[in-house]
From TrEMBL:
Gene3D superfamilies: Glycogen Phosphorylase B
InterPro entries with a match to the protein in the record: Glyco_trans_4-like_N (IPR028098), Glycosyltransferase_grp1 (IPR050194)
Domain Glycosyltransferase subfamily 4-like N-terminal: 13-160
Keywords for this protein: Glycosyltransferase, Transferase
Protein name: D-inositol 3-phosphate glycosyltransferase
A Pfam family of this chain: Glyco_transf_4
Species name: Branchiibius hedensis
Alphabetized GO MF terms: glycosyltransferase activity
Record has Transferase as a keyword: yes
Length: 341
């Protein structure tokens, strides 16, 4: 596998997906090595090949360095990015996963420099989709930029970690509790969520609390808001299982694995109608979608309607099984076995 990101040093969701999938495939008896500029993940069961980089433009230089790596001993190269210079055939099967579209992200990101960077990365994704023998997207929306890519394999949730209890509500907090996983600044909109929670949700539900898994939150937060910083996955799963509602008002998600993790754990999902949220919630059938300006309305509705919230969480939990890590690994195993003709 190829990934610029790994959980050892990066909080990017792609890195976690690579770690989860590599671990699951290793558990199934495959030999897996991950090529990455990140150091190895402590305790990882799969192999690791670190490609050390210095200076600027590291993602582009990582792609250039990959041209010099010897992959001839492998049956499959599965790239999660940065394989767009790998035109020469090296292995029997070259798979590429597109984790959303940088073209889509360029439409929402602020700043000329960042927009230009996203457009350049979108061009690299376009090239990569032509280089690989098999290209898949994690959600169908990205196919509008790559209409020749027809297969969708979603990101995967470890149900054994996020949904270990048969009773989805056995560990819920006594107090009305909302959970956010993301960043204070940028497209995740953590600061906007806290403002909406403080101005309206706490006004109507005074004992409500908001938990932030967010390592860039300010030191001083409004009453009822607690920041946990960066925490291990076991602690994150615990928060999902205790929260009543999960809220991520992101302006862009290529998939949005936190939505699927929350659904697996039985927390009712509230999101803005970004591409990933629409796909994971089936256009709001298994979650509540609202504009950022009105995000507090579905939060309040779910905190106050116990029966409706429980019904939504049960239905969403069943729907989320299509995003289980086991199902995702099954689909990739079938794809790996489909040798290039």
């Amino acid at each position: 596998m190829i990934s610029y990101y790994l959980p050892s040093t990066s909080k990017m969701g792609i890195g976690y997906q690579v770690d989860y999938l590599a671990t699951e495939l290793t558990r199934r008896g495959h030999t897996v090595d991950v090529f990455s500029p990140c150091p190895p993940v402590p305790g990882a069961s799969y192999g690791h090949r670190q490609i050390r980089l210095t200076g600027s433009l590291r993602t582009f230089r990582f792609a250039t360095r990959l041209r010099r790596e010897d992959f001839t001993g492998y049956d499959v190269v599965h790239a999660h990015g940065d394989d767009y210079w790998m035109w020469r055939r090296r292995v029997p099967s070259h798979v590429r996963t597109l984790h959303g579209s940088c073209f889509d992200e360029a439409l929402t990101i602020s700043g000329f420099k960042e927009k230009a960077r996203m457009i350049a990365l979108g061009g690299s994704e376009w090239l990569a989709s032509l280089v690989a023998d098999h290209t898949v997207t994690v959600a169908p929306e990205a196919q509008r930029w790559y209409p020749w890519v027809h297969q969708v394999i979603p990101n995967g949730v470890d149900f054994e970690l996020f949904a270990p209890h048969a009773d989805l509500h056995a560990r819920r907090e006594d107090r009305p509790t909302a959970l956010f996983v993301g960043t204070w600044h940028g497209r995740k909109r953590g600061a906007d969520l806290v403002a909406a929670f403080h101005q309206r949700v706490r006004t109507e539900v005074p004992d409500a609390q908001l938990w932030l898994v967010c390592d860039d939150a300010p030191e001083h937060l409004p009453p009822g808001v607690t920041a946990f910083g960066r925490i291990p996955n076991t602690e994150l799963a615990d928060l999902y299982q205790r929260a009543w509602v999960f809220v991520l008002p992101s302006d862009y998600e290529g998939f949005g694995i936190p939505y699927a993790e929350a659904m697996a754990a039985g927390a009712a999902v509230v999101a803005t109608p970004n591409e990933g949220a629409r796909f994971v919630t089936d256009d709001g059938r298994y979650g509540r979608l609202a504009a950022l300006s009105d995000i507090s309305t579905p939060i309040l509705a779910l905190l106050l309607d116990h029966e409706g919230r429980d019904r939504l969480s049960r239905e969403a939990h069943e729907w989320a099984h299509r995003f289980s890590l086991a199902s995702v690994a099954d689909q990739y195993e079938s794809l790996y076995a489909a040798r290039h003709d």
